[in-house]
């Protein structure tokens, strides 16, 4: 009895939520049959496990916190170094981290190396990588013009653009309520950007408003680029291409393209402090680790649950912005972020069109 009760938490608790409930019920019935009335107390304790948050959801939350630190690292680094150079060093660190994970995983899964990709699959991978690079470099530039919390809040409107792109180009359906979520998103972005033609600005805030408008444009461009990457990810998911392959190719594209742009524009400059280099390298490593943890969580928990947890990245970035950078967000930015967060969660919790593992990790 004791061994079986311990096995309940060890075996059932590691399954997906839907499978875990069935397993727990089966364990409960087995315990009741074998022990009769004496098994009621352990059975009740075992049944309570299904109400606890899964370990995979906790790992996803850790991944969100790690990626929030990555965003703040970029905010600090872009104050001293050109955003393109930040993208280059972060991309290098991201590529090394993801490639190591790919090699380790390939040792256990030989088919990952032996698979021959079709020309169309390579085109999808290339398109996803280029779109991912555009999103990565644009958000780094956007963070350079506005507080990191505001930029990430606008970036997290990506599911809205992904829904629109899927509706227009992939013939996917949109519910009536989704159009209200789109309106929420537009309102939230407007409250964060606070353009002068909509909001009265004091004279000292003129330059800040211009910079914030530029940051908003770059952040929106990043959201659109990631939305395109998201949509291409749907095609990659249909073809059963492993997420580690996508992460590695995306990070290699970030490294290669940012290197070309950086040296072509002669924007390379030696950072004044060594800790800036550590922040840029740490930003890439944290992003890669966060994506890998998200992939692990998605393989063990419902996609909708993980997607909602990822949307909470807005909250953690704002907290770190206050504690680390020392910038207190405007109350209108908080309201705008809340509207965007509501829209993202609403678009994510869909009845039959939830994103797959590959689509989420490809971002």
From TrEMBL:
Its main location: membrane. InterPro entries: EamA_dom, EmrE-like. The chain crosses the membrane at residues 48-69, 84-104, 124-145, 151-169, 176-193, 213-232, 244-268, 274-296, 303-324, 330-349. Residues 30-42 have a biased composition (Polar residues). Keywords: Membrane, Transmembrane, Transmembrane helix. It is found in: Membrane. It is a multi-pass membrane protein. Residues 55-193, 214-347 form the EamA domain. The keyword Oxidoreductase does not apply. Residues 21-42 are annotated as: Disordered. One of its GO terms (cellular component) is membrane. It comes from Holothuria leucospilota. This is Solute carrier family 35 member G1. Pfam families: EamA.
């Amino acid at each position: 009895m004791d061994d079986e009760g311990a096995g309940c938490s060890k075996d059932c608790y590691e399954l997906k939520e839907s499978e875990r409930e069935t397993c727990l019920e089966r364990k409960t019935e087995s315990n009741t049959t074998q022990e009769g009335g004496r098994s009621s107390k352990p059975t009740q304790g075992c049944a309570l496990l299904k109400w606890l948050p899964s370990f995979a959801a906790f790992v996803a939350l850790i991944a969100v916190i790690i990626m929030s630190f990555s965003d703040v690292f970029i905010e600090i680094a872009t104050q001293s170094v050109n955003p393109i150079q930040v993208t280059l060093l972060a991309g290098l660190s991201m590529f090394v981290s993801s490639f190591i994970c790919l090699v380790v995983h390939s040792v256990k899964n030989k088919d990952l190396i032996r698979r021959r990709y079709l020309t169309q699959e390579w085109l999808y991978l290339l398109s996803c990588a280029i779109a991912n690079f555009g999103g990565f470099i644009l958000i780094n530039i956007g963070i350079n013009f506005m507080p990191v919390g505001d930029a990430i809040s606008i970036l997290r409107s990506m599911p809205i653009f992904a829904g629109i792109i899927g509706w227009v180009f992939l013939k996917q359906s949109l519910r009536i309520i989704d159009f209200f979520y789109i309106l929420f998103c537009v309102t939230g972005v407007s409250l964060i950007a606070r353009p002068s033609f909509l909001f009265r600005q004091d004279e000292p805030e003129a330059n800040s408003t211009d910079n914030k408008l530029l940051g908003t444009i770059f952040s929106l461009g990043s959201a659109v680029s990631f939305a395109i990457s998201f949509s291409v990810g749907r095609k990659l998911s249909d073809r059963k291409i492993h997420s580690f392959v996508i992460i590695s190719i995306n990070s290699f594209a970030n490294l290669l393209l940012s290197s070309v742009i950086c040296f072509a524009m002669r924007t390379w400059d030696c950072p004044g402090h060594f800790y800036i280099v550590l922040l840029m390298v740490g930003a890439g490593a944290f992003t890669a680790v966060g994506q890998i943890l998200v992939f692990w969580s998605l393989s063990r928990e419902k996609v909708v649950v993980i997607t909602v947890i990822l949307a909470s990245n807005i909250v953690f970035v704002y907290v770190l912005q206050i504690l680390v950078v020392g910038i207190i967000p405007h109350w209108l930015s908080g309201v705008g972020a809340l509207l965007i967060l509501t829209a993202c969660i609403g678009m994510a919790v869909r009845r039959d069109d939830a994103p797959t593992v590959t689509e989420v990790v490809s971002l």
